[in-house]
Task: inverse folding
């Protein structure tokens, strides 16, 4: 069912039909919403993967990512002391930022997640 039709039926059921009809339609709306969210999540994951694969490597961008992550981890120094130390050392030496594979391997080994695919950390 199209969402426009579904919403129209919901509006028409208010005050004219049993409330159960409205709530049945609401469940249908939630199903549509959840399906759409799942589609968007899948597309987002795919785009993140493509973006990481299509990147033209720039060491300055990698240094910026290190710097941003250092700033984030400083908020909880006690918990992330080892990670913070490793990131600071990498930033100062500027070695792991020179190519994509080394940077991703360092980031994954240090923080446990890929720098371009998981932003929830």
Result:
């Amino acid at each position: 069912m199209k969402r426009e039709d579904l919403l129209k039926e919901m509006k028409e059921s208010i005050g004219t039909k049993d409330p159960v009809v409205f709530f049945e339609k609401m469940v249908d709306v939630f199903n549509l919403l959840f399906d759409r969210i799942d589609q968007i999540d899948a597309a987002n994951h795919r785009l993140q993967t493509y973006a990481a694969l299509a990147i033209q490597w720039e060491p300055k961008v990698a240094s910026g990512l290190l710097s941003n992550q250092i700033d984030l981890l400083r908020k909880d120094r006690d918990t992330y002391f080892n990670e913070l130390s490793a990131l600071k050392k990498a930033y100062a030496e500027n070695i792991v930022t020179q190519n994509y594979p080394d940077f991703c391997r360092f980031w994954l080994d240090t923080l446990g997640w890929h720098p371009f695919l998981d932003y929830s950390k």
